[in-house]
């Protein structure tokens, strides 16, 4: 988050805070404070300097809200319109107005998640984490190693957080809202209970308070995590590719939504395989099969799944 402030403070935020919270100076004969009118050569100043904690809190909340929303709308739309198979919307378990419900649920969750994660971002900005700037401080080797450690750390912890959320004593209170979407679309990526989203994001935030991470690398990894979360909800049931033995693909996560107690992993399949919760994708498990049955019954596709062109009335 300090990277975002480093970029946005001189570009936007300094001017915004100078406008809304201008600095006051004693500039009249009464000795009372009055608003300072800067000269054309001096930049505007705010009563809240960059290290003001209230300014930092507001800036973080605005940045996270806008950033998360932009990533969600851009990449969910790209995935939904260019990757997601819209025929899945005919599946018997696809809800009425589901896409709209997923979007509404996501937009309600994001602000609360941002508020709950504010302490972590604030601590980063105020220098309490192990984020660092110069690669030379730890070397190029650690740059690569820290990336691998980041992924293993997140994968293991999120596996167990996710699996524990499926325990009956927790599931109905926290994780059940996300499983409302049996056949999810990319718009379901953030459509969960705010506490669910917050708890599953904890490994990302805690990592930089345990391990040193180059701050630009961390920002990149954090953004990629958000995109990956959208990607695994695209419903793509490609099966048979050798990478599916190792990567927790969209096909794996589609099966998780359908069968509930399988494929808890985030990036890889190793934890599911080791802890006996792995269900590999197979062509016969593709939910598109059921969707096509409905479409055939409606006369929308032929036996091979090809669209049936309706004859124009003469």
Structural description of this entry:
- The protein has about 325 residues and is mainly alpha-helical.
- It has one domain (about 45-300).
- Helices cover about 55% and strands about 5% of the residues.
- The chain has helices at about 1-20, 55-80, 100-125, 140-165, 170-175, 195-205, 215-230, 250-260, 270-275, 290-295; strands at about 25, 35, 130, 215.
- Strands 1-2 form a two-stranded antiparallel sheet. Strands 3-4 form a two-stranded parallel sheet.
- Strand 1 and strand 2 form a beta hairpin.
- The radius of gyration is 24 Å and the shape is globular.
Order of helices and strands: HEEHHEHHHEHHHH
Which regions are unreliable across 5 or more consecutive residues at pLDDT < 50?
none
Given the structure, what is the number of helices? 10
Number of domains: 1
Q: Looking at the structure, what is the overall shape?
A: globular
Task: Tell me roughly what share of residues is in helical segments.
Answer: 40-55%
For the residues shown, what is the average pLDDT?
90
Structural class: mainly alpha
The percentage of residues in β strands lies in under 5%
Strand order of the largest sheet: 1-2
Largest sheet: 2 strands, antiparallel
Q: What is the β-strand count?
A: 4
Overall radius of gyration: 24 Å
InterPro entries: Fatty_acid_hydroxylase, Sterol_Desaturase_Related
Subcellular location: Membrane
GO biological process, one term: lipid biosynthetic process
Organism: Pseudallescheria apiosperma (Scedosporium apiospermum)
């Amino acid at each position: 988050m300090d990277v975002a402030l480093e970029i946005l403070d001189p570009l936007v935020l300094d001017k915004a805070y100078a406008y809304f919270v201008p600095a006051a100076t004693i500039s009249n004969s009464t000795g009372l404070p009055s608003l300072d009118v800067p000269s054309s050569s001096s930049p505007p100043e705010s009563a809240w300097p960059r290290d003001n904690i209230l300014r930092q809190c507001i800036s973080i909340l605005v940045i996270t809200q806008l950033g998360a929303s932009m990533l969600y709308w851009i990449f969910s739309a790209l995935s939904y319109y260019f990757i997601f198979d819209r025929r899945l919307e005919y599946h018997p378990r696809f809800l009425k107005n589901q896409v709209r419900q997923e979007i509404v649920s996501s937009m309600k969750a994001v602000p609360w998640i941002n508020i709950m994660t504010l302490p972590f971002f604030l601590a980063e900005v105020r220098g309490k984490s192990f984020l660092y700037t110069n690669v030379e401080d730890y070397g190029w080797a650690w740059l690569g190693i820290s990336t691998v450690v980041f992924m293993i750390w997140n994968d293991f912890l999120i596996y167990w957080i996710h699996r524990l959320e499926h325990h009956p004593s927790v599931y109905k209170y926290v994780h059940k809202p996300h499983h409302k979407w049996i056949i999810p679309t990319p718009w379901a990526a953030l459509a969960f209970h705010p506490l669910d989203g917050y708890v599953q994001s904890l490994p990302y935030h805690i990592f930089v308070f345990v391990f040193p991470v180059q701050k630009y690398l961390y920002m990149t990894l954090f953004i990629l995590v958000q995109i990956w979360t959208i990607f695994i909800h695209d419903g793509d049931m490609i099966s048979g590719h050798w990478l599916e033995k190792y990567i927790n693909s969209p096909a794996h996560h589609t099966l998780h939504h359908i069968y509930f107690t399988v494929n808890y992993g985030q990036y890889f399949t190793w934890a599911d395989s080791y802890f006996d919760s792995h269900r590999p994708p197979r062509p016969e498990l593709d939910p598109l099969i059921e969707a096509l049955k409905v479409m055939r019954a409606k006369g929308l596709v032929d036996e091979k799944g090809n669209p049936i062109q309706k004859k124009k009335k003469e």
